[in-house]
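Usage

Read records sequentially. Each one opens with the input sequence:
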Amino acid sequence: MRVQDKDKFVFTKNVAVMLTSGIPLREAIQSQVAHAGSPFFKGILARIIQDIETGQRFSFALSRHPSVFEPFYVNVVSAGEKAGSLEQNLEYIAAQLEARAAFKKALNSALMYPAVLLIAVCGVGFVFAYFVLPTLGDLLSSFQAEPPFATKIILFISVAASDYGPLIFAGVVLAFVFLYFFTRTEKGKSTLERFLLHLPVLGNIFRQAQLVEVATILSTLLKSGVPVHESLQITAQSVSNIVYKEAVARIVSPVLKGNTVSAFLDKRLFPPLFIQMVQVGEKSARMEQNLDFLAAFYQKEVQYRIKNILTLLEPFLLIIVGIAVLLLALAVLGPIYQIAGS
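and closes with the structure output:
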């Protein structure tokens, strides 16, 4: 089972506030059990409390639940424990979780309209294919009339859907099931993530979304007091795309040898602005602030590009819907006028 980012945000934010108010860690976590969004999350919090009661560190208790608390979360908490700034580090995590949730919500909202429109078009097509067109075909056969070209096309689709509908439906379902399980494998997930980055138009949006993720996670870790090489290791484990995981992981070894981060950023994945801002941040000891700027900049870029694509997509979808409606109208009304005229 998964724990939603919203539940983790509420838990993290509330514990941070309580620690700032002087409430002991165990009591702060205990107070959040009742507010947990699911029985699964409540059970995890109960086990974390048990570990703390036996003398274990908070970060160790979190690390025993990697499906809920990823390496980024655990290491920021660990850095806070070592530096005596646990409540501040929890605030950093809460801010990152909130920003991530807001970013996902904006993307989902932007994609809602075209998805609903396409589903509506497919639904109307299904109703015509299964209920209207077979009746029209029987009517034409009874009058022995030659249907217009548009009607022939629609009737062919209708007959194919009627005769082979179960097979087509089963084939589509099996294809989706195969893709679902294939993308859950290591190879399948890697293939999909590489493919998404090379899509025309959309590939650039996916790359910029990954830049937001890299900049946000790395900035949060550095602000939490985690050393640069460890921050890079954790960032490589935490980002969602395999290509960027590998790109960030490759920087760790050169940085351990005393090289700068900017010198080893892959120019195919990190644009000149990203590299320059990191370079300036290294020279001025303002890496965290510059990474925050980059995260905000690319987040706005992603939202702007999606808005532009949707602005162009709306008339395109309306044209497709108009053509589909026109084709259906010609297919239905043409034979009726033909029969009436004869």
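Summary fields computed downstream for this record:
- The chain has two domains: 5-69, 96-342.
- Residues 4 and 37 are 8 Å apart (CA to CA).
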